[in-house]
Amino acid sequence: MTETGQQEVKLQKSEGNAAGKFGYAILYLILGIIAVLQIYPLIWLVFFSLKTNQEVFNASPFALPADPKWENYATVWTQGNINLYFFNSVWITLVSVALTILLASFVTFAITRMNWKLSKLVLGLFMIGLMIPVHSTLIPLFNFFLSINLIDHPLALILTYTAFNLPLTIMILLGFYSTLPREVEEAAVIDGSSIHRIFFQITLPMSMPVMSTTFIINMIYNWNEFVFINTFISSDSYKTLTVGIQNFIGQYSTDWGAIGATLVISILPILIAFVFLSNKIVEGIAAGAVKG
Amino acid sequence: MNKVMSNKWVIAMYVLPALLLILVLIYVPIILTGYYGLMKWDGIGEMDFIGLSNYTKLLTDDDFWQSSLNSLLLAIFSLLSLIGYLAISLVLAAKIKGADLLRKIYLIPMLLSSVAIAQLWLKIYHPSNGLLNSLLVFFGVDNPPAWLAEPNLVLGAIFVPIIWQYAGFYILIYYAALKNIPDSVIEAAKIDGASPLQIAYKIKLPLIMGVIKVTIVLSFVGSLKYFDLIYVMTGGGPNGASEVIASYMYKQAFNSYNFGYGSAVGFALLLFCLLATVVIQRLTRTDDEVEY
């Protein structure tokens, strides 16, 4: 950069200063308003989850709960079966996520580390899987699980969640595996380690950072899933929170406090995860979207 | 090295479980849905082969075309909203203090289940005690509408929570892409005397065109597949005014037990999604990809 160039830039900056500051103030205001719009409905939800119906119907909707009714939470937790749905959400989510990450790691290892002719084709099959609309598979899947007696069985959910999350998980893993140095693995091969040993004791531990990204992304998707569980599961004992709260709200459609409390319970785990793992979540969502 | 890494048995062991899952649970159902569309079938009894009559019936089924039109409208709304997200991202990425925190706040609704979002917005739109109408009454509007019961308003009313849910997602993607543009490119333009608007329009946008194209496909095709939110909020009503393709398919199969006809609708959804992907990619194709 020449000296005159620098001077010109400085000149422009000082000229634009007053107008610039005003402009920035407006921009911050707009960005702040958007932030409030994104957050306020959730704050309002927490408020009405702590109110009685009388308060909801007679007082201002913006008012703080006069006498917070924490018992709304205790009531729905035990009487509304929400504790059962919550437990089902946790274990079905965890089992599906673990299975997805393990199978996806196997595939990614085979594709990036091993030599075989069909690897490109197989990778293509997984990647095209990203584009398939889930609803178009719903009726045949329902019929398939019906014919093998897995309708109303949690295994139908676990297998479906795993299948539909494999493509995205493999895609995120691929990006990381291709950057991993191979020297350690090559040395292990020369030392005569078996391939399973290399996978489980070298590659898998090295991919911990990306596994945690795929873990949190898969967890959010499975925790929030609705169509499959609504179609495959009919008994209360296997329902997860998404369909459970639907049921519950159908029965208690006029009790705002109870509805609010169930909704807060269903979103709280995700919000807590976001507070601690927001960078991982942002990274996973961005990786999943941009390459798709 | 090569010998160990080409072991056919190990490759099969690592790849087959995942491959089998996506073949059986994604690819076979996709083909079957087209095949079931050739049947008259109540989901339980025998299937009767009826040729193409389900598909010819689709062509003259007003309800199907109404739901397709609604899906198309949602897809067009989604495309238009991308412009807003892009504008916000341009501001956020332009050395705004707290940009990282803001984009995380914007992302929060995206992490919630569509069921929870739908239930929350049912309360926001509640005709007498909802947040929206309370606000309108406060500002002196006499008879605010029952948003979800008006055939003319319902689709627009449903689109608002969709924006609320996805805004943070697209802003995140655009922001990440904009942050990838090297500072030197922008500095060079500033020295040449380009205004911030010129820099945004002539330099930044062309440089992230690849990402913009991906989001165009994502938002358009994603909108064609909307289901959860609409199913919970209105069930397609009032009188089909918010029916979309996926909810129409679901109703035909699981409420009216027309599994054959529902499958034909599901297959049409698949074709629309593929067609939209191909058409958008054709329309947005450029000969030279910008590099920096």
From TrEMBL, chain A:
It is a multi-pass membrane protein. The keyword Transmembrane applies. The chain crosses the membrane at residues 22-47, 90-111, 123-146, 158-177, 198-221, 256-277. The keyword Amino-acid biosynthesis does not apply. It is found in: Cell membrane. Keywords: Cell membrane, Membrane, Transmembrane, Transmembrane helix, Transport. It comes from the Bacteria. Pfam families: BPD_transp_1. Residues 86-277 form the ABC transmembrane type-1 domain. PANTHER family: ABC TRANSPORTER PERMEASE PROTEIN MG189-RELATED (PTHR43744:SF12), ABC TRANSPORTER PERMEASE PROTEIN MG189-RELATED-RELATED (PTHR43744). Belongs to the binding-protein-dependent transport system permease family. This is Carbohydrate ABC transporter permease.
From TrEMBL, chain B:
Keywords: Cell membrane, Membrane, Transmembrane, Transmembrane helix, Transport. It comes from the Bacteria. It is a multi-pass membrane protein. PROSITE patterns: ABC_TM1. It is found in: Cell membrane. The chain crosses the membrane at residues 12-38, 72-93, 105-122, 153-177, 205-227, 259-280. SUPFAM superfamilies: MetI-like (SSF161098). InterPro entries: ABC_transporter_permease, MetI-like, MetI-like_sf. Residues 68-280 form the ABC transmembrane type-1 domain. The keyword Membrane applies. The keyword Metal-binding does not apply. Its main location: membrane. Pfam families: BPD_transp_1. Belongs to the binding-protein-dependent transport system permease family. This is Sugar ABC transporter permease. The lineage of its organism: Bacteria, Bacillati, Bacillota, Bacilli, Bacillales.
